[in-house]
Amino acid sequence: MDTDDSEHSRDRPESSADDVTRDGQSSGVSPSASDADQTPVDTEGQTTESETEFEAQSESQSIEEMLLEFDEQEGLIRERTLLDPNYVVEEDRIVGRDEQLQEVTKMLRVALGDNRPPNLFLYGPSGTGKSLITKAVCKNISQICEPRDIRFGTIEVNCQDLDTLGVAVYELVSRAADEAGVEVQVPKHGVATKEKWDELFRIVDENFDSLVFVLDELDMLVGRRDKQDPAFSRLLYQLSRAGADGELETFISVVAISNDTKMMESVGSRALSSFTPEDVHFGDYDANQLQAILRRRQDAFYDDVLDDDVIPLAAAFAAQTHGDARKAIDLMRVAGELAEREGDERVNEAHVREAQDKVEKNRVLEVVRGISTQKKLCLYATAAVAAESNSGAARSTTGYKVYQFLTDSIDADQYHQETYVNKMKELTTYSLVDFERRSHGPSSGMFLEFQFGESPATILETLREDSRIEMVSQDEVASVVKAQLRNEG
Ligand SMILES: Nc1ncnc2c1ncn2[C@@H]1O[C@H](COP(=O)(O)OP(=O)(O)OP(=O)(O)O)[C@@H](O)[C@H]1O
Predict the structure, then answer these.
(1) N- to C-terminal Cα distance for the chain?
(2) Ligand 1 atom having least distance to the Cα of 88
(3) Strand locations in 289-432, DSSP E?
């Protein structure tokens, strides 16, 4: 990641006009109408122009001289934290989530009195404000609780990188200890999960009157044991039971957050009986809402450095997937950083287009680097079909034929079609691909149609970094795909 959190302390000379439109309306800028200038981006391993310049200069300048020279260059970004996706912005910068803000506030405010707030299930696509709203409400509750001498705490964990229940419980222990300012008294490894639970409840009971557990991306905590009883279900059971049993003095509430609307279907009946959450849905943002979100953060930049097109275009690009505010903010930040690096006076449309290319590649890279070779083959085959088809989508039946061709070509194990479909379905959790069930008519069978959140060409290019996939000729794959598409009729 190329985040740079350093802050500019210098003041940029004030300019007379702020030329960014403020009407919140779409300016009609369409990312697809682009004949985008495909300037090479500095993905890892590639040398950018500024790096080359840097090398040339290094022969004649000392590091100190260069640093001082860079320091004298005017930056365009004044307040980088406003463009950091993990920074919890002030309430007046939150746009378009009034309903959810009200619902979550209404339910969690119970913590201010002498009662247990309900459990919540917040669901919707990534970047739609689930974490932001939860954090903002908890921050406010905490501020009100302090003068009232209510020991209120929030324990947040992102479950994405936690493999097992034991690891997750230890993470909760360590966050709870941090929040309470006490020492953890159980080792991380070599003890039963039960001991970690005991330690968690000891810390909770001794240090908090009211506590909200925020479990982000909870559906990712599957664990290794029993797929029928995933680790997140066991975690929910224990936490919500502790909350409901009355064994602890502390009021416990659990906020489960997921992109997967169907997550609750995988929660076992035992956990469901004690978890029973209130649901809050977070829908996609449209381009206008994304524009409004970006406008409330445009003061991240110095006055008069954003061209009129920048915000509408970044919003339009982000709205193309599913209206992800994180992506819109990322685009504006990366565009600003590119402009700064290129020594430009203003951020313009070309910087946003370049940023879109870079952000998309980074996201795809992040996902595909972590998946197994078999999943890569499934994804490659499906993206290859989508890249050639007129609709930009790929049928599972056609994708599977191409997958068979790929596995034969590199002599890899070959899944049955059902497993191929399941692997593709698993990839939907990353918002890279989505699917719909379709059929040609009453007499023909069902198939899934996969649609891609990112451009199939970018996915293919990224997957070709895998040496096994690179072995297969792109032309051969394309001709197999074309033949299969003709067979679809
Ligand atoms: N309504 C909004 N107003 C202002 N900023 C927003 C809004 N919604 C989201 N953001 C910003 O977008 C970024 C992503 O939001 P957030 O982390 O809340 O998404 P999420 O729905 O929890 O996504 P994920 O499931 O990927 O964690 C954050 O930087 C957040 O500040």
Answers:
(1) 44
(2) 31
(3) 393-395
Structure tokens given for 486: 């003709």
DSSP per residue, 16-38: S---S--S-------GGG-----
74-101 residue pLDDT tens: 688 999 999 998 889 999 999 999 999 9
- Kindly report the pTM of this predicted structure: 0.72
Q: Which residues make beta-bridge pairs with 439? A: 446
Residue 289 Cβ contacting ligand 1 at under 6 Å: no
Among the ranges given (125-129, 224-228, 255-259), the one the predictor scored with the smallest mean pLDDT: 224-228
Q: Which CATH architecture has domain 97-281?
A: 3-Layer(aba) Sandwich (3.40)
Query: Which residue shows structure tokens 């997958």?
Result: 403
Q: Ligand 1: distance of its center to the CA of 283 in Å?
A: 12
Q: From ligand 1's centre to the CA of 259, what distance in Å?
A: 12
Is 132 marked within a binding site? yes
Please indicate whether residue 235, judged by its CB atom, sits closer than 6 Å to ligand 1: no
Calculate how far, in angstroms, residue 453's C-alpha sits from the geometric centre of ligand 1.
Answer: 18
CATH topology of domain 370-488: Arc Repressor Mutant, subunit A (1.10.10)
